[in-house]
Amino acid sequence: MTQRLPALFLGHGSPITVITDGPERRAWQALGQALPHPEAILVISAHWETTDRIHLTGGTAPRTIHDFGGFPDELYAIQYPAPGAPELVDRIIELLGADRAVADETWGFDHGAWGVVQPMYPAADVPMVVMSLNRSLLPEEHLAVAARLAPLRDEGVLIIGSGNVVHNLRLWRQFAGTVPAWAREFQDRINDAVGTGNHAALTHFAAEDQAASAAINSAEHYLPLLYAAGARLPGDVTAVFSDNIDGALSMTSYLIGDTSLIAA
């Protein structure tokens, strides 16, 4: 019988994290060693947005995408040649419906995907699918999609949402090197909501909620969190790790499932 895999949300931060011996990268490496070896990986990436349907990387050998600029050559040299997973794509379309999801061979493994998976599985031997964020969906609808995907966890699939809870590049220079009160307040609030399974607190923010407005101004890095939270199954508990904030960026990550798999 296949062991149930957790759902993860990984705060991926700057691409430079992939080649830096910091606590976040070490946490990803430890996860790869501690978790049951998945049969496939599904990554919901902040770096692929669509508006018609949910798109899924098709084909047997998706390309590595370096969707960033101004970084060391070492980053651009990284290739992550994990195989695609056409059977997983078909299974996801079965779960979601062909009117909601479609295979797409024009995309590949963007750095929101390979940037966190490469430290976990450096051999690139686990088949992987990247899923887009359909920005036409409401937050509650993202959660509903995630709930439809939850059975994959019992089928050997590791579900990873890759983004950041606090992510506001427009405020980066202003707050770099500090922990703004609004960022800590919002991050703590989300930590509590994830831990208690409070979906309303994850999806409903008042217009006057200045902390939320600053933390998730464009939302594409926040929405992948809803896929980890929405894939929660009965009996799951939550571990919070890498709960660090630097200015307008938090690296906070979550494991939802059997938290004995990691050191909290």
Features:
10 helices; 33% helix; 264 residues; alpha/beta; six-stranded mixed β-sheet; 12 strands; Protocatechuate 4,5-dioxygenase, Chain B
Total number of strands: 12
CATH class: Alpha Beta
Please, what is the CATH homologous superfamily? LigB-like
Order of helices and strands: EHEEEHHEEHEHEHHHHHEEEE
As a whole number of angstroms, the C-alpha radius of gyration is: 17 Å
What percent strand? 15-25%
Number of continuous helical runs: 10
Second-tier CATH architecture: 3-Layer(aba) Sandwich
Q: What would the average pLDDT be, to the nearest integer?
A: 96
Q: What name is given to the CATH topology?
A: Protocatechuate 4,5-dioxygenase, Chain B
Terminus-to-terminus distance: 27 Å
Domain module count: 1
General shape: globular
Q: What is the structural class?
A: alpha/beta
Roughly how much helix do the residues carry, as a percent range? 25-40%
**Major β-sheet annotation:** 6 strands, mixed
Topology at a glance:
Blueprint: E1 7-11, H1 23-34, E2 40-50, E3 54-57, E4 63-64, H2 73-76, H3 86-96, E5 101-104, E6 108-109, H4 111-120, E7 128-134, H5 139-149, E8 157-163, H6 172-175, H7 181-196, H8 199-203, H9 210-215, H10 223-230, E9 237-241, E10 245-246, E11 249-250, E12 253-257
Parallel strand pairs: 1-8, 2-7, 2-8, 3-5, 4-6
Antiparallel strand pairs: 1-12, 9-12, 10-11
Helix pairs in contact: 1-4, 5-10
Q: In summary, what is this structure?
A:
33% of the residues lie in helices and 21% in strands. The protein is of the alpha/beta class and 264 residues long. The protein has a single domain, classed as LigB-like (Protocatechuate 4,5-dioxygenase, Chain B).
